[in-house]
Design goal:
The complex is a heterodimer of chains A (about 475) and B (about 60).
Chain A (H helix, E strand, L loop, with lengths): L5 H4 L14 H12 L3 H10 L4 H30 L8 H4 L5 H32 L9 H20 L3 H11 L2 H22 L9 H17 L2 H8 L5 H12 L2 H15 L5 H9 L1 H30 L10 H18 L1 H6 L1 H26 L6 H4 L16 H17 L11 H4 L2 H22 L11
Helix pairs in contact in A: 2-8, 2-11, 2-12, 3-10, 3-13, 4-10, 4-11, 4-12, 4-13, 4-18, 6-7, 6-14, 6-15, 6-16, 6-18, 7-15, 7-16, 8-15, 9-13, 9-14, 9-15, 10-18, 11-15, 14-15, 15-16, 18-20, 18-22, 20-22
Chain B lengths: L17 H12 L8 H24 L1
The chains are: A mainly alpha (about 475), B mainly alpha (about 60).
């Protein structure tokens, strides 16, 4: 990473144009590596509960591309323009203090995703050790997963001590996971295609449209929740134009493609984890090679996630001057705790976690898109993003913009009314519209209306000279 | 179209750390108008709207 100072690398400060030197190819590889982790298998697994292979693949891909578009239009413009992370990009909407709300959502999201990744990686490592005959009798996931998760957290911590430079270098190495993933998919398709073609989803409901919409919804929520990662990565690109195709293809397309592994696995072999079925499909040699890469691949994504989360936390005044090593430690700690204490419980509740992401991020994306493109008409001041006085930079009350808070709450309520994230019970027009898209649209409309209303109500508040 | 709402306070914020102040000044001087252009919108609409719509129709009739 040429020209990026250590201070900028490990802070939430904007990057200078000279420091943002990732071209399309480099950004695309970094994004694909970040996205192409074993969580794709679990996403594919959930799609395979409701649709067969062909329909599931097409619906999931469509959903992922739609979700990626929304997340990119939400965080991308401001992040790419000023070289800032996704959290900083929410200050125009939520206010000089209100950004802690999306920051908390980001933290929960990244802790959840990375816990999932590391638990999955630990399970794969356990399978690898079993395949190699290196584990004594009686040892399995229960004993190995907590220890392997803690080991992975330690390695990630050490790799990230160098800041984003570590992310970039590891991305280049671990990008090999993507072709390995396609190779695993090829193995499964070539060996089991006749079975796969007629395999039926196990949890499909009688309503065909409901099944179809639910898989689209899974795709939308999965990629929309990449919102925190988008800012942390595209801040390295010189401008928005450079980032468009890498984001939409590198991240938006690689997720559904690798999810096909989980989709095919759950339909034919009743398991989305290649670590469990590669031995029977490809033989022990294939299994060992693939397991090594599956175990390693999670590091690329987990490293990016922890880095994004740490940079996001930098926006908090309490940790602004904390050393990078200490900040990393408090960022990794929740992931380590989940992986060490409740790995199986968390793994079993992935569906609820996925739906939570939709509840949280769909309204957020709607608010940001409406704010940037409709209300501000692409005018955002970089200085105002970093102003410390909660009363001055943006119109808000005590640093919180009530319009954004109300709109976020309204969007969440719309989502929950359409789809229960715990039971997947749905109502109203869900089967025609998904839950994420109406939630985003309603939050955006609410934000615009309340902002206009408040704008009139607060007209007496002096606006600093030149602000318009 | 409605007027854009006031967004930024361009007055100096003296309490900012010197390095952050330097960065902000540099970005304010830099031409940051390279937002989405027609080519970017073409790719966004193609990959984020038209392609998903085509996939959805294909999947539904598959």
């Amino acid at each position: 990473m040429v020209g990026l100072s250590d201070e900028a690398d490990t802070s939430a400060w904007p990057l200078l144009p000279s420091e943002r030197n990732w071209g399309r190819w480099r950004l695309g590889v970094a994004l694909a590596t970040a996205a192409a982790a074993t969580w794709c298998y679990v996403i594919g697994e959930y799609a395979g509960y409701y649709l067969d292979f062909t329909q599931g693949a097409l619906a999931l891909t469509a959903g992922c591309m739609i979700g990626m578009l929304l997340a990119f239009l939400a965080a991308g413009p401001v992040c790419a323009r000023f070289g800032i992370d996704s959290i900083a990009s929410t200050k125009p909407q939520f206010g000089a203090r209100g950004w802690v709300i999306p920051a908390a959502m980001q933290l929960i999201s990244i802790v959840g995703w990375n816990s999932l990744l590391l638990i999955f990686g630990a399970k794969s490592a356990t399978q690898l050790l079993l395949a190699l005959g290196l584990l004594p009798a009686g040892y399995g996931d229960r004993q190995m997963v907590p220890a392997a998760t803690l080991l992975a957290c330690t390695i990630i911590y050490l790799a990230l001590l160098r800041g984003a430079s570590g992310v970039s270098k590891l991305s280049n190495i671990l990008a090999a996971h993507v072709p390995i993933g396609f190779w695993m998919l090829y193995l499964l398709l070539s060996h089991r295609w006749p079975e796969l073609r007629i395999a039926q989803p196990s949890l499909a409901r009688p309503d065909r449209l409901w099944n179809y919409t639910t898989v689209v919804e899974i795709g939308i929520t999965a990629t929309m929740s990449w919102w925190p990662y988008i800012g942390a990565m595209i801040r390295m690109a010189p401008d928005m134009r450079t980032a468009v195709v890498p984001v939409m293809l590198g991240m938006g397309a690689s997720i559904p493609l690798l999810s096909l592994i989980g989709l095919a696995g759950i339909l034919v072999l009743k398991s989305s984890d290649p670590a469990e079925w590669l031995r029977s499909v490809g033989g022990p040699t294939y299994a060992i090679i693939a397991l090594i890469f599956v175990s390693l691949a999670n590091f690329g994504t987990a490293i990016t996630g922890i880095y994004s989360s740490a940079i996001g936390l930098r926006n908090f005044a309490a940790v602004e001057r904390m050393s990078w090593s200490s900040l990393l430690l408090i960022t990794i700690a929740p992931v380590a705790l989940v992986g060490a204490l409740i790995p199986e419980l968390f793994f079993a509740r992935f569906g609820a976690f996925l739906a939570f992401l939709g509840v949280a991020f769909a309204p957020l994306c709607g608010i940001q898109i409406a704010d940037y493109f409709l209300l501000r008409r692409r005018v955002v001041g970089i200085r105002a993003l970093y102003g410390r006085d909660p009363a001055r930079p943006y119109r808000s009350i005590g640093g919180f913009n009530p319009a954004a808070v109300l709109a976020l709450g309204f969007g969440c309520a719309v989502y929950l009314n359409l789809l229960n994230p715990l039971t997947y019970a749905s109502s109203g027009p869900y089967r025609f519209m998904t839950a994420s898209l109406p939630a985003a649209a309603c939050a955006a409309a609410c934000y615009v209306i309340v902002t206009r209303f408040l704008g009139a109500a607060m007209a007496a508040v002096p606006v600093p000279p030149g602000a318009e | 179209m409605p007027k854009p709402i006031p967004v930024a306070d361009p007055s100096p914020t003296a309490e900012l750390p010197p390095e952050l102040e330097r960065r902000i000044e540099a970005l304010e001087r830099h031409d940051s108008t390279r937002d989405l252009n027609a080519g970017s919108w073409f790719w966004l609409i193609l990959l984020g709207v038209l392609a998903p719509a085509a996939l959805l129709l294909w999947g539904w009739w598959a």
